[in-house]
Specification:
The chain has 194 residues and is of the alpha/beta class. The chain is built from nine helices and eight strands. It has helices at 5-15, 28-35, 52-62, 74-78, 82-90, 114-117, 122-129, 140-152, 182-189; strands spanning 20-25, 41-44, 67-73, 95-101, 104-105, 111-112, 133-137, 157-162. Helix 3 (52-62) runs parallel beside helix 5.
Length: 194
């Protein structure tokens, strides 16, 4: 059982507010901006897979007044599983990591992610390394009903959403239209951008 990716993202969109910074990465950085636009959306699309969680952690530690949500894929997370341990060690209570688990490297051609072959359950993984809140969802209704409570629970939080691959049309978004926006983000956060 899995959820359409747009349906899985909807509860996050509905519950975000003006003190929530959402960082999307790789595949999610193509889907999220086609669903919503917000001054505190940051679409992180460098060539470095696995870099969004450390980036989000840095912002979470420097801006404890904000709730930081990092939406990344299982392929990207597989490149940097150690970042989860770092999040827990940093005790970044204002950070939520959302893993879109579709079992493939969506942006690079659909190859199978090793974590799918190994049957990794990110919710169980998160609990085993010390996330105060770690959950996995495969069902749209259960996720929708639980989202508010999970997002309000003790952080850092790890949420795994088992999703279907994005629609082919989502993967052909012009990346220029969802570029880094680092200067815009810095302005929205009222910080200096080097």
């Amino acid at each position: 059982m899995s959820m359409p990716v747009r349906v899985a993202l909807q509860p996050l969109m509905e519950r975000r507010d003006d003190s929530t910074l959402v960082i999307t990465h790789q595949g999610s950085a193509r889907v999220w901006p086609s669903m919503a636009q917000h001054a505190l959306d940051f679409h992180y699309n460098p060539s470095t897979m696995g870099g969004a969680i450390p980036f989000g952690l840095g912002i979470a530690l420097s801006r404890p007044d904000l709730h930081i949500i990092v939406v990344t894929g299982d392929g990207s997370l597989a490149m940097n599983l150690g970042s989860l341990v770092t999040v827990v060690a940093a005790q970044a209570s204002n950070l939520t990591v959302v893993v879109l688990d579709n079992g493939i490297y969506e942006v690079t051609g659909g190859q199978t992610v090793a974590t799918r072959v190994a049957r990794v359950d990110y919710g169980l993984l998160g609990k085993s390394i010390g996330f105060p809140t770690a959950s996995s969802f495969k069902d749209c209704q259960l996720w929708s009903e639980a989202a508010a409570g999970v997002l309000a629970s003790t952080g850092p939080r790890l949420i795994s959403l088992v999703v279907e691959p994005a629609l082919p049309s989502d993967m052909h978004v012009e990346l220029e239209a969802i570029s880094y926006r680092l200067a815009e983000l810095a302005k929205a956060l009222k910080t200096e951008c080097a």
